Automatic annotation (TrEMBL):
The chain crosses the membrane at residues 19-35, 47-66, 99-123, 157-179, 191-215, 235-259, 271-297, 317-340, 360-380, 411-428, 449-472. This is Sodium-dependent transporter. The lineage of its organism: Bacteria, Pseudomonadati, Pseudomonadota, Alphaproteobacteria, Sphingomonadales. It comes from Parerythrobacter jejuensis. PROSITE patterns: NA_NEUROTRAN_SYMP_3. Keywords: Membrane, Transmembrane, Transmembrane helix, Transport.
Amino acid sequence: ATTGSDGVTPREGWSSRSAFILAAVGSAVGLGNMWRFPAEAGANGGGAFVLFYIFCVVLIGLPILLSETLIGRHGQASAPESVRKIAAESGKSSHWDTLASFGVTGAFIVLSFYCVVGGWVLYYVGVFASDLVATGLTGGAFEGRPAEDVEALLPGLFGNAGLMVGLHALFIAITFYFVSRGVSSGIEWVATWLMPAFFFLFLAITIYGAFTGAFSEAVAYLFTFDASKLTGPVMLAAVGQAFFSLSLGVAGMMTYGAYVGRDVNLAGTSGIIAGADTAVALIAGLAIFPIVFAAGLEPNAGPGLMFQSLPIGFQNMPFGSLVGLLFFVMVFFAALTSSVSLMEAPTAWLKEKANLGRPVATLIVTVAAALLGVLAALSFNTMSDFQPLGFLPLFEGQGMFDVLDTVTSKILMPVGAILTAVFVGWIAERRLIDSENGLSGPLERFWLFLVRWLCPAALTVILIVGIFPSIL
Ligand code: PFF
């Protein structure tokens, strides 16, 4: 076994190839797929956004995913340390580690607001559990209550600042528990047991939805390409969603890559991770939008979409309370396997940098992210008027929660990805990259072309037209 930085204790790592795949898919698949993807697709007009998103996943996300896992595996350390090692071996400046320090900061910020949404999921688990007790096993959810009542659950939660903060704290505390236990006994355990269960239930719900809701309307909405809708801001939103969903640009996948054994083919596993992640996002869209249209809801309802439309769908479903409860338990699992990866990136860094034990490093990250998350939670109620960057067009009308989301998905992630592409494509020595990427022949040349030219160029253009749309 390889050893850790002291050269004696074995270094932490995944116990097998499939454990890595499950953990990485667990990191990728989460609230980004089920909650953020439908909300962003709806807010950005549907088809054009969705198709551009798929384009970004294949031609930008996938090559960057391979680049990040490759950096991690070669470095076998926290993200900044891995970058520094590769830079040193290539005879380049150690300052390149800044790219991963940005990333670690980004992961920390995402963690803070991600756990707020994790708290909403816990709330719905509670609501469905008590409904199941009240209405019995066979009944639909919230029987006999108008759809407006079901829709009103989320605003009801938003109005209760104490409950929002409490649930956020509970979610981040659960994340803390698993990360503090370590890579193979904590993080890996969650992923191996919970991800397969999640996939199974999710598919079942979608198949049911395909037979009952406004399915064809949803398909048309999600997949009709209207070029006039592809504006700069829509493109930036799509690329940001692709990164968010694939856990890229914030050192998450670099950190997980560091625990991968030498025998794993990183190109192949990257393909599996991106494929599974995109499939779940599209299935989520196909599960949620039929209900949105059938119930006459607005597709651009924003962050509430998943939390409002699906519970309405569960109303008319046989065994609806039970299915609803199972569904939100599964979303909770999927969110947890992502939040552990978000917490792991800054934890691995702090542990190494300050030479701390894992539990202490995890605790420091948890407390700091929890405090920032409180501001995000309060932006839905008592602090809704606080719009710290409202004077900039990109952040117009945004409270803390939206500011943290925009800063990460529309700035830190794309910038992190540009730097990663340049680093792997131009800075790191070819020999070293060749030995890690698991590709050969034309495919390897194509990947190098994407990393060297297409990714940096396309991302720079998208950032500019997304932030300054008047240029177009
Ligand atoms: N990919 C996760 C999701 O879609 O929910 C969110 C995420 C996890 C982003 C880990 C970034 C990260 F490093």
